[in-house]
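Q: Structure for this?
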Amino acid sequence: MAENPQKTWAATVLTLFPEMFPGPLGASLPGKALESGLWALETVDIRDFARNKHRSVDDSPFGGGPGMVMRPYVLAAAIDATAGEGGDEALIYLTPRGAPLTQARVKELSRLRRLTIVCGRFEGVDERVIEAREMEEISIGDFVLSGGEPAAIALIDACVRLLPGVVGAPQGLDEESFEGGLLEYPHYTRPNPWEGRDVPEVLLSGHHEKVRQWRQQEAEKITRRRRPDLWRRYRRDHDT
Ligand code: SAH
């Protein structure tokens, strides 16, 4: 058989704090996969592209106001020295102003060859560098972190667990939250009972079809209660 021409999936992280990596990505599942070469991680210190002798990367905002802004030419130089030619790649800026990250986008990103991920600090980066380098703006949720690094770790982790060979039982991935547009059903393990609480009877029945139906019902119930937004979309997509 011919060799798989696909190169290893890789993430390049542009950051002012390269020491934050691999961090959690060096442990457990992503860590083992990193060690065995199923994916690759590279960090680029944005400060290496600062021009003056103080190696400044930020400056005060035009128009006044609190905080500092990352200088466009420093970040652009870091991007130009690392990002590829597009194609099978994505250039991402993590920001609370970005498109909310979804499992669907994670799936697509895990099928590319390389992600270049820019971690902001301070109040963010100069708007013009986002435009000029056509960065895809992604948010990991409606809250504000002190920097993009924890968001990069979350994004990379979500992609890496979808790479072939990383998760031991890949069929588990098909049933997870968001996979069919629903949140996942509840899980139980031994002992039964525990603190007077019983495991739902149907799970002990050994009746696979009944178990499947129960899980589907529970997934629908929990989605309807907790995420009316997902529920509406699910109903729309499944209503014929
Ligand atoms: N002033 C900005 C927040 C800056 S937080 C605003 O109000 O939108 C500093 C950096 O943390 C950002 O540049 C971004 O890279 C990162 N960050 C913070 N929250 C994030 C989120 N929810 N998703 C992705 N990145 C985030």
